[in-house]
Write a structure and sequence with these properties.
Distance between the termini of chain A: 13 Å
Strand content of chain B: under 5%
Structural class of chain A: mainly alpha
Distance between the termini of chain B: 57 Å
Largest sheet of chain A: none
Largest interface: A-B, 47 and 47 residues
Strand order of the largest sheet of chain B: 1-2
Radius of gyration of chain B: 21 Å
Number of helices of chain B: 9
Largest sheet of chain B: 2 strands, antiparallel
Helix content of chain B: 55-70%
Strand content of chain A: under 5%
Oligomer: heterodimer
Shape of chain B: globular
Shape of chain A: globular
């Protein structure tokens, strides 16, 4: 039950994109068509879902004071986390290239750029600062990825439609995407303060 | 005599027109946030107050400048296949330096920025400049390019921070030693109405404190910038 709560919380209530504005670069750059957004969203779910438990194990059993080395190594956190993320992204890149060359070509530069997608590292850092346990870290990874996926699909769909509207030239494209994201953020705020755990206990 | 010979070979620290462009270009024509769309990720959440945005801007300038410098120094030794990992290690070490320094110098601000300091690593502007500039240019130029892009980024951060803090909280530089009350009622407004700051009737706009406001403000900044700088307009 706690697993589900964390999942729902990460996906909807504390959406990484719309509540914390993480992973904005690729979110704004790849959201021009729903197809590529779909592929990138899936890749992000996968990378988040895998790196989060690995990073949990690393921070718990290698870096903490009662870990393997018996010394506080938290200052190495950034380097180790980013190394895990970079290698996982490399793995995803190879898998996508093998099984779906079309998607690989469509994602282009943005696949390796998942490494520098703030949502991935941000998720890991949030997980550490919120002191999640192992199963929660998996739920947080999958839920955060799913929330990111939903958000990028939603804005890609809106941007595909808005191409036919009469937007002032200077606001076309990027400017409009920013304002849309802001509006979506406010819409998602209506979910804020909902506590899934309270419903579960009733 | 030896000096002139060195000068003809192009001095190490030249500061001519080209170098000045490296700094001024990112402020408008090639702004990292409004034009290149890089580095929006980690920053929007910190701009609700000016002081943290200022600290963040300084941290980013430091990281972009020195990561560009070091990457550019090492650029001939880095194998192409593993360059991302090497760059990330350079950036991550610099960010660790920043984090520890900030933790030592100003703990409240460190707490307030929390994970966002760590997120400078994945700030696309750092990586983007390393890939686009530092891997192909000499150290001094790359250093200036890093400073320029850090400044362009910091400028937007501080503009957004000022707008959000003045309208959202009525103050400026809250949390810093030089805290100012700009608009809205002061604390003792209800006791002594003559002692209010400018526009004592002003009620704080809570929308501005929300992260979503940062998106609106940047959207509007892009709008303004592109109406004056028409060559940036998105044609597609």
């Amino acid at each position: 039950m706690e697993f589900l709560n964390t999942f729902i919380k990460a996906a909807f209530i504390e959406n990484l994109v719309l509540a914390y504005f993480l992973g904005m670069c690729s979110y704004l750059a790849v959201s021009k068509s729903v197809n590529t957004a779909f592929g990138l969203g899936l890749a992000v779910i996968f990378v988040l879902g895998i790196t989060m438990p690995i990073n949990w194990v690393i921070s718990e059993y290698l870096l903490s004071e009662n870990g393997l080395f018996g010394v506080d190594l938290t200052f190495l956190r950034f380097i180790l986390f980013i190394a895990v993320i970079a290698s996982m992204v490399q793995l995803v890149e190879m898998v996508v290239e093998k099984f779906s060359p079309a998607l690989y070509a469509a994602l282009g530069i943005f696949l390796p750029l998942i490494t520098v997608n703030c949502a991935i590292l941000g998720g890991s850092l949030f997980m550490v600062s919120r002191e999640y346990n192992f199963s929660n870290s998996i739920a947080f990874g999958l839920g955060g990825g799913f929330g990111w996926f939903l958000a990028i699909i939603a804005i890609a769909a809106i941007r595909e439609k808005i191409r036919y509207s009469n937007v002032p030239p200077a606001l076309r494209g990027l400017g409009m995407a920013f304002i849309l994201t802001g509006l979506m953020g406010i819409a998602f705020m209506s979910l804020m303060g909902i506590d899934p755990a309270a419903y579960a206990s009733n | 005599m030896a000096e002139t010979a060195v000068k003809e070979k192009e001095p190490l620290f030249q500061f001519g027109k080209k170098e000045r462009h490296l700094i001024t270009d990112p402020l408008n024509d090639n702004n990292p946030i409004t034009v290149q769309v890089l580095g929006i990720c980690s920053a929007l959440a910190v701009t609700s107050l000016v002081y943290p945005s200022f600290v963040m801007a300084i941290a980013v300038i430091f990281v972009t400048a020195f990561s560009s410098l070091f990457t550019s120094m090492l650029r001939t030794y880095i194998p192409k296949q593993v360059r991302m990992i090497v760059q990330l290690v350079i950036i991550a070490s610099l960010v660790t330096v920043v984090e520890l320094t900030l933790k030592y110098l100003n703990y409240p601000i460190y707490k307030q920025l929390s994970v966002y300091i760590g997120l400078i690593i994945t700030n696309c502007i750092v990586m983007g400049r390393l890939e686009a500039f530092a891997m192909a240019n000499k150290p001094w130029r790359s250093f200036l390019d890093g400073i320029g892009n850090g400044l362009g980024y910091g400028a937007i951060l501080i503009i957004v921070g000022i707008i959000r803090e003045v309208f959202g909280k009525g103050s400026l530089f809250a949390g810093s030693p030089i805290e100012l009350k700009i608009i809205g009622p002061t604390v003792d407004y209800f006791i002594n109405t003559t002692d209010s700051a400018l526009f004592g009737w002003y009620t704080n706009n809570n929308l501005m404190v929300l992260p979503a406001a940062a998106m609106f403000i940047i959207g509007i900044l892009i709008w303004i910038q592109r109406s004056y700088n028409t060559k940036l307009v998105d044609v597609s």
